[in-house]
């Protein structure tokens, strides 16, 4: 085991999200709804050296698999990320994230006049563009700072 | 027409538009032939914002088809005041009417509301988003006065928040039209509209002054620059003055220029233009009735 891998300890069962764009680890935690009160056992490595990316972030979550919605949003802020499912300390499944056609219910629309920001029984929905996302309801396009739209409420 | 709901001009193909305009021309030419077309049909009017032309012309259109309207009335005296959601309101009114017309201050409201009802829902303006039925009457007016071939149109004013502009710009991508957008920098077209026009390969140019393009135009579509968009009133006054037209401004225009405006106007078109051949904005407003008759006829099953 190399020094590089030892920076973040191994987990027994859960998910390792590797090759996260450097600096995005905390946003990944926000996507997963993980904060100080959530009770999840989490290891985070930030700006660790990476052969592929130069530097990367890495997040390991004990006892947790990601939903497809979570993976979809993850792909928008960390397009090179890999998802590793770990059982009994071994990686049993590994795959890269893929950009979805749309993301539902995880991001909030930054347009304060959008109907999805009001108290209506509707989930946010965004079409995924080549270089951003677009609200299906009000058409607002978000290109930068997509992570800021993560709805952690 | 394939669409049960009329939400955005983006959903309208050239064939859809021409079907509505052709039927509107029939209704305008022979209103009697449409007089009992939808006897007993009820149109539900859900206007969460003030409206004069749109609401009255939908009412007139429904009545001229032999039908009638049920109107939820002002928001202040409706269940909305008690905190009822839009989704609930339209689900309730759906039970009273054969089709719904919705105006709402929030963008995307018509799209959302349409997901909760089975009767046709027509977007009569959603915030700064879209106003597709206004666009259909705009296109009717343009077709009558200037035609759709080799059309050069200038669209001037508040392009950022002007929903009529957004819908018209989308719809014009179906035609052979060069679009010139004239506005202050702060009120340029929103990113989403520019994105769509680019995707459609539309011919567009943006300007901050009218003078350089005025002489090329077949149509000049003027919209109101809204004082409330500016944090400082003096800034508004300085800008608004640059986007007003009078007979002196139009000396450089072609004699057959068509001047349009979705109304209401404040001072962006001088009243002295009203009596010239340039002025088409009142006829444009009048066209709202036959166009909305045609639209209602189609969504209520007039083509079946």
From TrEMBL, chain A:
It comes from the Archaea. Pfam families: PyrI, PyrI_C. GO terms for cellular component: aspartate carbamoyltransferase complex. GO terms for biological process: 'de novo' pyrimidine nucleobase biosynthetic process; pyrimidine nucleotide biosynthetic process. Residues 102-143 form the Aspartate carbamoyltransferase regulatory subunit C-terminal domain. Keywords: Metal-binding, Pyrimidine biosynthesis, Transferase, Zinc. SUPFAM superfamilies: Aspartate carbamoyltransferase, Regulatory-chain, C-terminal domain, Aspartate carbamoyltransferase, Regulatory-chain, N-terminal domain. The keyword Nucleotidyltransferase does not apply. GO terms for molecular function: metal ion binding; transferase activity. Zn(2+) binds at residues 109, 114, 135, 138. Its cofactor is Zn(2+). Residues 6-98 form the Aspartate carbamoyltransferase regulatory subunit N-terminal domain. Binds 1 zinc ion per subunit. Contains catalytic and regulatory chains. Belongs to the PyrI family. Involved in allosteric regulation of aspartate carbamoyltransferase. This is Aspartate carbamoyltransferase regulatory chain.
TrEMBL record, chain B:
InterPro entries: Asp/Orn_carbamoyltranf_P-bd (IPR006132), Asp/Orn_carbamoylTrfase (IPR006130), Asp/Orn_carbamoylTrfase_sf (IPR036901), Asp_carbamoyltransf (IPR002082), Asp_carbamoyltransf_Asp/Orn-bd (IPR006131). One of its GO terms (molecular function) is amino acid binding. It comes from the Archaea. Its EC number is 2.1.3.2. Residues 5-144 form the Aspartate/ornithine carbamoyltransferase carbamoyl-P binding domain. Keywords: Pyrimidine biosynthesis, Transferase. PROSITE patterns: CARBAMOYLTRANSFERASE (PS00097). Pathway: Pyrimidine metabolism; UMP biosynthesis via de novo pathway; (S)-dihydroorotate from bicarbonate: step 2/3. One of its GO terms (biological process) is 'de novo' UMP biosynthetic process. The keyword Transcription regulation does not apply. It catalyses: carbamoyl phosphate + L-aspartate = N-carbamoyl-L-aspartate + phosphate + H(+). L-aspartate binds at residues 82, 163, 224. Carbamoyl phosphate binds at residues 53-54, 103, 131, 134, 263-264. Belongs to the aspartate/ornithine carbamoyltransferase superfamily. ATCase family. HAMAP family: Asp_carb_tr (MF_00001). Catalyzes the condensation of carbamoyl phosphate and aspartate to form carbamoyl aspartate and inorganic phosphate, the committed step in the de novo pyrimidine nucleotide biosynthesis pathway. This is Aspartate carbamoyltransferase. It comes from Halosimplex litoreum. The lineage of its organism: Archaea, Methanobacteriati, Methanobacteriota, Stenosarchaea group, Halobacteria. The gene is pyrB.
